[in-house]
Amino acid sequence: MAPRPILIVEDDAALADTLFEQLGLEGEFAPEVAGSLAAAAERLAGALRFDAILLDRGLPDGDGAEFCARLREAGRQMPIIMLTGRDREEDVVQGLDAGANDYLAKPVRLSELLARLRAQLRIHDNSEDAIFPIGPHLFRPSARLLVEPTGRRKVRLTAKESSILKFLYRAGGRPVPRQILLQEVWGYNPTISTHTLETHIYRLRQKLEPNPSRAQLLLTESGGYCLAAGA
Length: 231
Hints:
Layout: E1 4-9, H1 13-23, E2 29-34, H2 37-45, E3 52-56, E4 58-59, E5 62-63, H3 64-73, E6 80-84, H4 89-97, E7 102-105, H5 110-125, E8 132-134, E9 137-140, E10 145-148, E11 153-156, H6 159-170, E12 176-177, H7 178-186, H8 194-208, E13 218-221, E14 224-227
């Protein structure tokens, strides 16, 4: 599985460095650090996507809770975990009311933070709120739907098509070998061949691509498949 991109919004340089190092240690996550709300907004507005945010409450240019509320108002649904020295009951309530999924008081225990982050990602991935942009579509894995917001067209996916697309999305544009896809989507099954995968990819392109004969979103590359960068 490709590392999951996580945005750390923290102005304490020592803590930010520790979180960056620990999250990137096992290859499970791909952390990025922003030292202010302005820097976080810039990264979120760019081409990079983030699967979750670790958000400090007190930042040099504003309140993390207010920033969280603005993200929710803008339709951002990724898990947000607040890390803060403000641990009074009213502070926790404010943070959760602003849309945070979880609230951890500093000093943070890294093992607990990692466990809570994984738990929030699992909940989000299996919720109705999980929406992934792919080209002109919005991909809703839980509903197995591709939605074109402009034309309001909805395309149904099979369970296997949805699993393939979700796994390729998680790879962040990196090619995924055919055998890895077979293992992840079908599990260990010696009767399943690469021809089965190729058939599913063909059908998925019919649903995903404007011109399936000239794929621009779901590409064949390096003995496997990938989603085009920025897709």
